[in-house]
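sorry for the late reply, my laptop died twice this morning and i had to redo everyting from scratch. anyway the thing you sent over, i finally got around to it. pasting the sequence first so we're on the same page, its 199 residues, then the predicted structure underneath. double check i copied it right bc i was rushing
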Amino acid sequence: MSSKHLMLVAVALVGLACQPKHPFVWANDVPPSEIPVESTPLRSGDVIRLTIPGMEAELEKVGDVEVTADGSIVVPFLGPVRVEGLTPAQAAQQLNSRLNGIVREPNARITVVEPRIPVVAVVGEVRSPGQFEINHGEGLITTLARAGGLTEFAHPTKIFVVRTYPERTRIRFRYEDLVGGVERSIDFELRDGDVIVVQ
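ok and here's the structure:
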């Protein structure tokens, strides 16, 4: 192999070595986005309202329904129906298929009345790792404080939020941006199911 080829191979290997083992995006490069509650998958603890033409009287007796610990709701004439992981529209579609033959031309609708309290996990170099209930719209710095703050071994630029919905994303933060009030970092809102990893 010529020296030119060897040099090209060496450059390629250096390029591969510089690539992150686990891809990420810096928090300041993440555009602000909101996920409407009606497009968020249902989870245990969500309180929903069912509207099914032809079953108003039965549903009025039941009232608003909470998604149970096993991810189900109890519907008159149907019993438990699993909805966890489905958006309200998908869950309504599932209900419609089950209601065929019970209700004429079923047209179920599901509205989230009260979303569950968001829960996030904090792991790695924090003093009190664990799962924490947070307020809707809460940011990263407050949640790190709930976990006791960073340990002396924490890397100040290796703070990540691992998010699975609407797509798997790994978002990286600098501690100095968080405490310094850098807009994109300090305004970043945690969501239910996020995992904060401090390396």
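The chain is about 25% helix and 25% strand.
thats about all i looked at so far, will dig more tmrw
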